[in-house]
Amino acid sequence: xxxxxxxxxxxxxxxxxxxxxxxxxxxxxxxxxxxxxxxxxxxxxxxxxxxxxxxxxxxxxxxxxxxxxxxxxxxxxxxxxxxxxxxxxxxxxxxxxxxxxxxxxxxxxxxxxxxxxxxxxxxxxxxxxxxxxxxxxxxxxxxxxxxxxxxxxxxxxxxxxxxxxxxxxxxxxxxxxxxxxxxxxxxxxxxxxxxxxxxxxxxxxxxxxxxxxxxxxxxxxxxxxxxxxxxxxxxxxxxxxxxxxxxxxxxxxxxxxxxx
Amino acid sequence: xxxxxxxxxxxxxxxxxxxxxxxxxxxxxxxxxxxxxxxxxxxxxxxxxxxxxxxxxxxxxxxxxxxxxxxxxxxxxxxxxxxxxxxxxxxxxxxxxxxxxxxxxxxxxxxxxxxxxxxxxxxxxxxxxxxxxxxxxxxxxxxxxxxxxxxxxxxxxxxxxxxxxxxxxxxxxxxxxxxxxxxxxxxxxxxxxxxxxxxxxxxxxxxxxxxxxxxxxxxxxxxxxxxxxxxxxxxxxxxxxxxxxxxxxxxxxxxxxxxxxxxxxxxxxxxxxxxxxxxxxxxxx
Lengths: 260, 285
Prior knowledge:
The complex is a heterodimer.
Chain A: H1 5-32, H2 49-55, H3 58-91, H4 97-102, H5 105-109, H6 112-125, H7 132-155, H8 160-168, H9 173-202, H10 205-210, H11 218-228, H12 233-255
Chain B: H1 10-37, H2 55-62, H3 64-97, H4 101-115, H5 119-130, H6 135-143, H7 156-180, H8 184-192, H9 197-208, H10 210-225, H11 229-235, H12 242-251, H13 256-284
Helix pairs in contact in B: 2-13, 3-7, 3-10, 5-7, 5-11, 7-10, 7-11, 12-13
């Protein structure tokens, strides 16, 4: 749009400084996880001690395990449920479709604080209480809307005539779905699964209200540690979390192009 | 699109039912339960005698403390949204119109990447930058010898910085999508007709990308008003907001009905603001 060389330079500097702003704290945190000083004294005195200590921290390891279990289970449930719903929206026109689509918005737009506390109230009330199972219930609810959105985006490019012809050649509806439709939407299905996994792994607020002292997820354990006066092990575990979720996203972005 | 006649009612019903039953049980029923709780005088667990009352809402109405905190939270939401727009919009504009090809894709991924890592961890990482004796203090003293102490921790500004850092990518993404959709030939035509750069920006680009700006603002404003973890970690004493008060009601004070009333009130005000701004922008158009 703007062609002069000087504005071009300014805009590059601007983008560059935004990226610095976004990455500065993360880089500092990663560096500090290798600093032997408990009080983050500079210059850095390099060490792996905090990672070694982390390996012996049962609380954090258990919380990490819980996070992974919850993420796996809720990813499987939410991708299956969400894909079914997305397929229904794509394949059929029916009364109330628009309302159903709008009903996907509250789980992702209402502040998590409100959703989390309401879940706490309700789950207590009906006798489910807190713990890993209620957390899975909650995480699935938050992931489903993302799954529907991502899978629907992929379905838009699917030619329904392919399924129709499979049907007219004698395939049952299920055969047609599994042999023709599913292979086509698979990249969307896969990306949605990774999305759901990342949503669950990063979720803090809902887990926080549904956690018990014995059953916490990693973010909840980290929050508790920070509030108690943290230890540098938190930097180490945070570094691992950041690197893992960034690599998940890099994989997603190969399957699901953001920049269309 | 041809819709074949198979099970036109049963098909969609059985395909969507699991999702919506799940959402009903985990989102819609709990929200109703919260609404119900806000009118109770005590949590109905055990064998307590519980009755309906307006005492929670009366408490909020009578105590200035809650109103000041509500205002403070909404002010925070407004300021973070505004800052994200001021910083993010130019970034989206440059990305959409000045950068092309592989570079654009690379910068895009760079902007989304931290966004998808844990929010709590990102907020925590700022404590190491903003604290006294941290990297900024060392750098400032290196550039300006004898600069002295620098600490931003436990201030309102620290909360602002952390929240803007968390939510900026939303604004960049939504604005980018809108700006991207503006046809270059319109801008070209305006320029040929003699419009200056600012004229094009304020009379064309910003009005045409209003949907993106609005979407970004909603996505930022709502969660920021309800934030509690960010003010706790970065704000210290400064970090009391309505979100942290609600958190306390559920995790420390155990006054769930009051917490429910505060949550519902917050949700109600947010809804009103969105409906109002929606109808306002429709009238302006």
